[in-house]
Amino acid sequence: MIRLEKSMIFKYLPMDIILASERPPFSKLGQKPGTRPPKLVTPGEIIDESTNYIRGHGTYMENGNLIASVAGYVTTVNKLITVTPLRQVYQGAVGDTIVGRVMQVQTSRWKVDVNSRLDAELRLANIQLPGGEQRRKDLDDERGMRGLLQEGDLVCVEVQKIGNDGLLKLTARTSKFGKLTQGTLVKVSPSLIVQDKQRMQNLPCGARVIFGANGYIYITPIVVQDVVTEYSEDYEEVSYDVREIIGRLHNVIKLLANHSIMISRTSVVTAYNISAEQNVPVKELLKPDIMIDIALATVQELNE
């Protein structure tokens, strides 16, 4: 039996130690100089005792006082006061671009998971058939639905309508919507997604990102915009460089979400560039100490 001394065990184990005191306070980096931090409230807390304000989402009136109904931060626009929840389930809004996963193939429709408490469906009549055909779907099209989309497939769709029964009705009738292939999916809280009319972004690093309003973010190689969506599998090989870019974007988005930093094109590109400039390997980006360093540097640069 070989006996090892303690000095032999730890002699060749280098350790990098970063003191917490060496890092700037995260709370101070999270706000711009000269601005006041947002007011946080809890359910039942009085926001204002005046009746001069208009009650918005997340608030209610009681005994002449404006009271918060959810935990979140207070936003005031003119005389309208709302409370935005820190964490929320996607509720759905007409016109939202979202990413979903097909769960069931039903009669003339697909049941889609959109990360919401509401059920969602994509009807056969609301998709654009291969070749860009805009026509009435017949019985043959209905029989071949599984050849277009089947269980597990990812789709990029738009919210067309919210039914009275709470059902989200989806549509994919233009070439920019449809089946997604050759990419990776990142799931974050919907409250972290910045509201933006342009949710499909070609980033300068060489990848395309769909910032779904429902918290599903899809990263894929850049594709030609004029090509009509084909509902078929894409088995074309993706180069190593592009896969590395997609992997870095995936981990960058995860670290931003882990530190509750709002996710947008600007924040993602900033964090990506910082990690690349520091030559941080892709697999190292999910280490806790590196995550907080990149997050701090990102917030600091965004506030400059």
TrEMBL record:
GO BP annotations of the record are: CUT catabolic process; exonucleolytic trimming to generate mature 3'-end of 5.8S rRNA from tricistronic rRNA transcript (SSU-rRNA, 5.8S rRNA, LSU-rRNA); nuclear polyadenylation-dependent rRNA catabolic process; poly(A)-dependent snoRNA 3'-end processing; regulation of gene expression; TRAMP-dependent tRNA surveillance pathway; U4 snRNA 3'-end processing
Superkingdom of the source?
A: Eukaryota
An example of a GO molecular function for this protein is: RNA binding
Q: Give the UniProt entry's GO cellular component terms.
A: cytoplasmic exosome (RNase complex); nuclear exosome (RNase complex)
InterPro entries from the UniProt entry: Exosome_cplx_N_dom (IPR025721), Exosome_RNA_bind1/RRP40/RRP4 (IPR026699), KH_dom_type_1 (IPR004088), KH_dom_type_1_sf (IPR036612), NA-bd_OB-fold (IPR012340), S1_domain (IPR003029), S1_RRP4 (IPR048565)
- Supply the PROSITE patterns for this chain: S1
- Location in the cell: Nucleus
Supply the PANTHER family for this chain: EXOSOME COMPLEX COMPONENT RRP4, PNAS-3 RELATED
Q: Which family does it belong to?
A: Belongs to the RRP4 family.
Query: Which protein, by its recorded name, is this?
Result: Exosome complex component RRP4
Question: What is the organism of origin for this protein?
Answer: Armadillidium nasatum
